[in-house]
Amino acid sequence: MPYSEKQVRQIGSTISQLEYLSTIRPAETEFIPNKARVYVYLKQKKANQISALIGLAGKETGGGVTFRGDVNLKLINTFNIGEEMQLLWKKLETNEQRLEASATLPWLGLGGFGSTGSLSIYRKDTSTLVVNPKIGITWNGITGHRLTGWFELKKVASSTTNVAGYGNSNSTLYGLGYSYYRFESNLFPTSEISITTGVALGSRLADYETSGQTVTQASTAYSLNAKAGVYHTLAGRLGLYCAYRGGAVGAFGGNGYNQLFYNELLRVGGYSTLRGFDEDFFWVSSFHIATAEARYYFESEGYAFLFVDTAYLERSWLNGFDTFKPTGVGVGTQLEVSGGLFQLAYALGSSNGGIPQFKDAKVHFGFTARF
Predict the structure, then answer these.
(1) Could you report how far apart the first and last alpha carbons of the chain are, in Å?
(2) What is the pLDDT of residues 177-206, one digit of tens each?
(3) How many Å apart are CA 241 and CA 236, to the nearest integer?
(4) Do 133 and 8 share a structural domain?
(5) What pTM value is reported for the model?
(6) Is 230 in the same domain as 274?
(7) How many CA atoms lie within 13 A of 86 on its CB side?
(8) pLDDT tens track for 270-279
(9) Closest to 168 measured CA to CA, from 133, 123, 216
(10) C-alpha distances in Å from residue 265, one per residue of 155, 198, 280
């Protein structure tokens, strides 16, 4: 392989994208007859983490406070092969939970190819059960680029027969995705770019009730997702983070039997998608969410922020079509404390131009420990 000064200069930037390694000093090159030796000075970072997030909100009826929360365990490079494993559990409403598990092996020893797999299970009383396993192959570029091809199954089931619009379906999807990440810092973060996109297409079998009989119909299912975020320093420690997140699911063909059941819809809302609203508050077929967040850093990972999340949502399903235009505003902080990070956020939400009510405010606080 011929020597490339450009690739040597990129070593530090490439390593900075890894959560479990950092450079002690820049890479150095030694030239000997017909060869060049590159020395890289590395040290391991604490990358494993466990986090807990709790959300508080006033009850709609009867007064009092409702609790929601999640626990997220993330293990990185535990076996010294660059692998990443993650387990997420969320408790939402009564009898409503979500469990997600994933594992990624970035290098298979063949070029830049790796593998990934995940399993997502969502359950809400007897009305909704969604099981979604996925396996894929990744290709990792040396400058933060990644391509992913995957195969997934999605089973949606309901044992509730007296609720209109709920049903059973099975989908088989094939997808292709792209992601990119770059991060730069100088004591405080100065620039960050992240992009994730994906499209999947496949077959769908769904049971529709017609004339008192259950008819199984085949159609073509699709799903789309996109997420992009940019952070840049404005002046000193003050910076601006802007982001977009969007997604859609649907089906076509099937001799007209292609409308989604209510329990096939996407779920948005909550701290990670649309602040100021309960977790998974909106059930939609497509969504577009824009975020603007002003940050003031007082530590390398500690900052205070003001934010606004605004969205346009559509719900196209078996029993109709609706649109929503929610907005969330609020303040928060992330603090570096002994052993990890503490997060606190206060948010107000309103929908379709309504006036935010302080009694409906959402408070989120959490802690992330690294080990």
Answers:
(1) 38
(2) 999 998 887 778 889 999 999 999 999 999
(3) 15
(4) no
(5) 0.88
(6) yes
(7) 15
(8) 888 899 998 8
(9) 216
(10) 13, 17, 11
